[in-house]
Each structure stands twice: as C-alpha cells, then as structure tokens.
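User: Teach me something about this protein's shape.
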Amino acid sequence: MMHAPNENKSALPAPGPEAAAHSERLQTYIKAEIQAQAGSIPFARFMELALYAPGLGYYSGGLHKFGREGDFTTAPEISALFSQSLAVQCAQVLAALGRADVLEAGAGSGVMAADILAELERLGQLPEHYFILELSGELRQRQQQTLQAKVPHLLEKVEWLDALPLPGFRGVVLGNELLDAMPVARFRIENGEVRELHVVLQGEGFAYQGRPAGKALLGAVRHIEAQRGEPFAEGYESELNLAALGWLKSISEVMQQGLILFVDYGFPAHEFYHPQRTGGTLMCHYRHRAHPDPLILVGLQDITAHVDFTALAETAQACDLEVLGFTTQAHLLLSLGIEQRVAQAGDVLQAAQQIKQLVLPSEMGELFKAIAFGKGLGQSVNGALSGFSFQDQRARL
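Assistant: First, the predicted structure itself:
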C-alpha cells in the first residue's frame, strides 16, 4: 500500500458517477452519526466507518482494491515468491508443534493464502486448518474464488472466521499489511496539552477539530514523551494505533502455543515520533496515487498509518509474549531463501524483477518490517526463527 508517490489532491482522478454515488451514501451515513454524537466523532471512529461500515466502507463496499485495477499492490500480489518464503517460516513452526493451524487475518484477495498452502503442501507441512479471519463478505467471496482457482484440492483446509478462535489456538498467526489499516487515534499538541482530533461537519464535507484527549490516549502520548526524554513541540500531530495493541492482546489470550508474524510498513518509536515528522504518517491510496487527506473520497480510498513496532513489542511483553525477531522485509525474505527460488521460477527474468521490488531499499525492502512474537515455543524452534537469521534488529526497538 506504499507504492505511489505523494500527489497533489487536484491531480487525483475524479470518481465516476457510480463511485461518487457510493461515496455520497457513506458520507450521509457518517454525517448522521456525527449529528447523533453532538456534532463530532473521534478520527478513529471516522476511519473505522470509512473503511468498514457495513456494505459501504472501503473494505466492505465491493470496490476493487488490490492489484493493477485497484488502489494499491501488496507483496503477495507482486509475486508468489513472497508467500512461498513466509511458508518456509510457517513450516518451521508447524513442524515443531506437530498438529497445528494457521490463522491469516485480513487475507485480501486470498492469493497469499493460496500460495502459502501450495508451498506448505510441497514442504510436507500442511496445517490441520487454514483459518481466515475476514469481516468483509465481498473479500471472503473473492478469497474463495482465488483458492478455488489456485488450490481447489486444499480448499477443504480453509475455514473463514468472524472473530478470533476460542482459547487454545496452537499454530501460526499471520498478518500482512493488516495493522496499517486498523483505525488510529490522531492527536495534536495545543498549548502543551494533548488534544484528540475529532471529525466535524463543515459545509458539505468534513473537517478536524481538537477535543480533550481521553485517559488512554493521554497516557499513551505521555508515555511516548517520557521515552523520548522531552515533550512534543507545539502543533505536533501524529497518531496511535490503540486498536492494533488491543488486537495483539486478544491474540495472546487465545493462543496456547505458537508464532505471531506481522509484516507491515512502519518504524521503531524513536523514528515514528521523530521531531521532524510533525504531521504523523497517515496516508491515503486511491488508484495507485498517494495523498494525506482522509476526509475526501470517503469510501473510495484506503486510509493507512505506519506501525509503531516499539509499541507492539511493549504490548507483547506485557501479554507474556516473547519478542522473537524484528527485521526488514528484505532481510526476512533473504533469510527465508527467496533468492534461491529464482532458478526454480518459470520466468527467471520476471522472478528477478519481482525480488527487486520486494527487497530493494528503494522499493519495499527497507520501509516494510517483520516482527515475530512467540508463546510457549521455548527451544522447539531450535532457539531461533529462520526468518531472522540473516539480521535480527530487536535492539532497534
């Protein structure tokens, strides 16, 4: 979701009549909630509705999102080599656990699930079940079509979930570009105080307005300032992904034994909240163009924020999860042998180009990171995860 340069809003293509009407319906829905909530809603709620409002939000409204015809291209869409590499990491843990499952959260088009299952079959490490946690009915349908087309004989392994599994889960939890699309709270420093950005009505559209920060947001911002050793400057704006931290806590509560692996774009806290990053990391993606305004093209564009990997690691440790590794996407894939797969590819030149997209610093290799958490693994994975053998950067957290 980070593959387009920042663009002037005036350069964004105008939506067609059908898309414009869809956006208008969602705006009417959001405006009604704002009016019902005394004239404002927290930005996190606005983002939640813009992305996930039933039948209307960006991820639940039936728009084509992935690949060349959509708004962004993810690593699994670029090349099966990405998913095949992740399968190697899954296989290491599944072999150590014996009978175990895989849970992929937010499976997009379903191509990663299909390619991972095919590679796990080749490696002789198929899971008991391949669970997909997907709230969008439209995406579920597309995932089923993808799996039916690519691995029809493995479709019986796949089960769709509406919520996390019951306590006792053993296996691997995967999230690729999952956390960046979770609703974030936005804050601004005004007169030394932490103000939460709310969304209010302005004319026919929306605008920001600062309101007193709640206890959770205020505490989180002051914690970051304590880590930095100084308060944020006047006017500093950024965001916190409290939803992602809560979700990780929920996973820890249902996991008995296994691995949690997230691949996403972001930074450790000292880079995320750098004094020069005064406007935060929020970015929108519309027809392979990126811009920073989430209050326009409502329901027609993706809204994302970078991941604070330090906050994830702190939450994991507080939930009795062990931080097993942190590295760049490039180092993860190289550790898992992606280069060796070129010779096996049907089109060697194309495979080489795909690998460049996935690992070069100027492409996805440096901005995208991988972080792994474990529970109850002990020495069962021989003390180290294969995906972090090339370079483990936990010290950066």
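Now, about its shape. The longest strand covers residues 255-267. The mean pLDDT is 92. If you'd like, I can walk through any region in more detail.
User: That's plenty for now, thanks!
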